[in-house]
Amino acid sequence: DAKTTQPPSMDCAEGRAANLPCNHSTISGNEYVYWYRQIHSQGPQYIIHGLKNNETNEMASLIITEDRKSSTLILPHATLRDTAVYYCIASPFGNEKLTFGTGTRLTIIP
Amino acid sequence: GAVVSQHPSWVICKSGTSVKIECRSLDFQATTMFWYRQFPKQSLMLMATSNEGSKATYEQGVEKDKFLINHASLTLSTLTVTSAHPEDSSFYICSARDPTAGGYNEQFFGPGTRLTVL
After folding, report:
1. pLDDT at position B31, please?
2. Residue A42's pLDDT is what?
3. Residues in B touching A8 (Cβ below 8 Å)
4. Rounded distance, CA B78 to CA A66, Å?
5. What are the chain B neighbours of A99 within 8 Å (beta carbons)?
6. Of B102, B45, B99, B54, nearest to A94 (Cα)?
7. CA atoms within 13 A on the CB side of B29
8. How near does any CA of chain B get to the CA of A32, in Å?
């Protein structure tokens, strides 16, 4: 799996959009970008994944650059419940394993 | 989404005893489940892949005789920490792949079990 790099921490004001960056400069053509988050003392939760097109679901949007070397997870209207560690993972299609990095600790500020 | 449960949510045991942790997929069948360990302020580390009806596949450095995994049915995998020691104290989390996801790696995670060995 390609290595991903994320800032260790970020703050965001409640109600604003939270934009979480991820670098994956060595990503290969068959690797998808997955985002999971882990609220304190809970198991991780799947958020979204994409290959090269931008994706949106009820939780978030995923913007992947054209060269696929980086991506941004967007939480459009952050709430206090979005405070968590967010993990960006590059994983090939068909791969069962998930390799978690250190993630970004996002703190939503009232 | 599908639900994965774990039992117990926390356990305290004495050094030298064994502890069993259960992981259940509540509304779907999981031929493959995964066990992770997470130490305080660290990321999740995959310990092993649990396969229904066959032996588990352990990651490098994980002692298979210490961490016994049994996946006897399509909805239940168990992790037994044998002869537990204080250094085994950790947060243990299981997961199962979304059976409808095809080749995509969407996994459902359990709530975790916090093990404290005295």
Report:
1. 86
2. 95
3. none
4. 43
5. 46
6. B102
7. 5
8. 8
